[in-house]
Design goal:
Layout lengths: L1 H21 L1 E3 L1 H11 L1 H23 L3 E18 L4 E20 L4 E16 L4 E18 L4 H67 L5 H36 L7 E3 L12 H11 L1 H21 L5 E14 L10 E11 L7 H67 L5 H36 L1 E2 L4 E2 L1 H4 L1
Parallel strand pairs: 1-6
Antiparallel strand pairs: 2-3, 3-4, 4-5, 5-7, 7-8, 9-10
Helix pairs in contact: 1-5, 2-4, 3-4, 4-5, 4-7, 4-9, 6-8, 7-8, 8-9
């Protein structure tokens, strides 16, 4: 019965690995690339980045000259008016056709607007009081300036805030890419670990099968007790169960990994990985310097500080003393004939200076300024705290890498020693000097040490990736990753 079960299990496992060959095999780099393309979260941040760029582009476009034409094809009015001097009512009819051509140019450096305006119209007016119909063409051409005084430059500040928003959105996008790379790498190596556990389970099952066959021959030859055969049969059955559990774990892990990558669950995939141990020298000083110079979190903290400074400027403009200057100069012509409009032109000019003077706001402005200044101090503290956190993270990761290298060396020795120990005790088992229960201990020990070595190698790879993300320097390839993530 046990042999039949083992054959069925072996057949299932063989089919599983054969089907894996037909699946799409992904390396770690391919998995990361696939996840970056399909991840809903990354797409969300990509859309935010596109929105910020479009908003900044629109703001810059608003700083360019704006051309507009306003046309009124017809305007007709009829009114009944009263003449006080003659105590008589009279009717007035007016028909007008007009158009206004305007060029407006915002001035970024002063927050003012300079405009060039031309208004052309034709008017026909009739009054029942005089019974006279008047027709004339009028053209009003002038240049005007509107300039705020004694206040901050809103145009320049709004543009700066949009630039900061774009940079902050870009940094959030890059941070999410690094975070997703970490998630995919962890999922990839977890999948690899389960796959290796399955392979180790196959080896353990084969070992248990060999032990069972040896004990069966010895029992049949009368050299061992039947209870030893029962023990060997129980160990083989448990090994078969472990093997099936590992198969289920692998299939479940594949489904979760496909979801992480944004791949349809029905698609068949497998992974291809090489986690051979190649010690990497990590320079702690370089890691800290590069991390403090390039980490996106620090740049985000600086952006927060600048936004807080801008908020103080905006708050200071509440209930402020400010003025407006409006200037215009041009000429206006009028005549019954269009060609003679400017035969006798008249000047058209205007000067208007106004001020807004706040008298009493019950301390509202000062209180809001105090709140804004406190926010700025908080943002400055956040920057220093973030710098300290980055240094601590890099130092701790460096210690973990060094410790993991020692762990791998120990794991290699443990696997080698466990293998030799098992082979020695297997020979003792063949000679009848060791029970099945005792041999199981050495068999399980060997499987456990193999799994521990795989875990140590995977954790070492993850720590190297963590150092890459925290320092933004790839010590495996000796390059900065700033350009890669952008």
């Amino acid at each position: 019965m046990i042999r039949k079960t083992a054959l069925i299990s072996a057949a299932i496992l063989t089919l599983f690995f054969q089907s894996a060959i037909a699946r799409k095999s992904l390396t770690l780099d391919e998995a990361i690339e696939t996840g970056m393309e399909n991840s809903p979260l990354i797409m969300h941040y990509r859309y935010n980045l596109k929105r910020s760029r479009a908003s900044l582009s629109a703001a810059r476009a608003r700083l360019k000259s704006k051309f507009s034409l306003s046309v009124t094809p017809v305007s007709y009015t009829e009114n009944l008016n009263f003449n006080d001097q003659f105590s008589e009512w009279y009717r007035n009819e007016t028909t007008e056709h007009s158009g206004i051509f305007r060029i407006e140019q915002p001035i970024k450096w002063t927050d003012g607007t300079i405009s060039l305006i031309n208004r052309l119209s034709w008017r026909e007016s009739y009054s029942s009081f005089t019974e006279i119909t008047d027709e004339s063409y009028t053209n009003d051409f002038y240049i005007s300036l509107a300039q705020p005084l004694f206040t901050y430059n809103r145009t320049k500040l709004d543009l700066e805030e949009l630039e900061l928003d774009l940079e902050n959105t870009r940094l959030q996008y890059l941070i999410q890419k690094l975070s997703l790379e970490m998630q995919i790498t962890e999922g990839f190596y977890n999948l690899y670990k389960i796959k290796k556990s399955l392979e180790i389970a196959v080896e353990d099952r084969d070992i248990k099968q060999e032990s069972y066959d040896i004990m069966k021959n010895k029992v049949e030859a009368g050299l061992s007790k039947r209870e030893d055969l029962y023990q060997a049969e129980l160990s083989l059955a448990n090994s078969e169960l472990t093997l099936k559990n590992e198969q289920v774990n692998l299939e479940n892990a594949l489904d979760n990994f496909k979801k992480l990558l944004g791949i349809p669950v029905r698609d068949e995939i497998s992974i291809s990985a090489d986690i051979s141990y190649d010690p990497v020298e990590v320079d702690l000083k370089k890691a800290i310097e590069h991390g403090l110079s390039n980490r996106m979190e620090l740049e985000q903290a600086r952006i927060d500080i600048q936004n807080a400074r801008n908020a103080i400027i905006e708050t200071g403009a509440r209930n402020e003393f400010y003025g407006n200057l409006e200037l215009s100069y041009g000429s206006i012509g009028q005549d019954e004939k269009f060609a003679d409009i400017y035969q006798q032109p008249e000047k058209s000019q205007q000067l208007r200076l106004s001020f807004e003077v706040p008298l009493w706001d019950w301390g509202e402005k000062e209180s809001m300024l105090e709140a804004s200044r406190t926010t700025l101090k908080s943002r400055q503290l956040d920057l220093e705290s973030t710098r300290e956190d980055i240094m601590i993270e890099i130092r701790q990761t460096h210690r973990q890498i060094r410790n993991q290298m020692v762990r791998i060396e120990i794991a290699d020795k443990n696997v080698k020693n466990s293998q030799l120990t098992y082979e020695i005790n297997l020979e003792r088992y063949r000679n009848g000097d060791l029970t099945t229960k005792d041999l199981n201990y050495y068999q399980n020990q060997l499987a456990q040490e193999k799994n521990s070595r795989v875990s140590a190698l995977i954790q070492y790879k993850l720590y190297l990736l963590e150092m890459k993300i925290k320092s933004l320097w790839d010590f495996e390839n000796g390059i900065s990753v700033i350009q890669e993530i952008e």
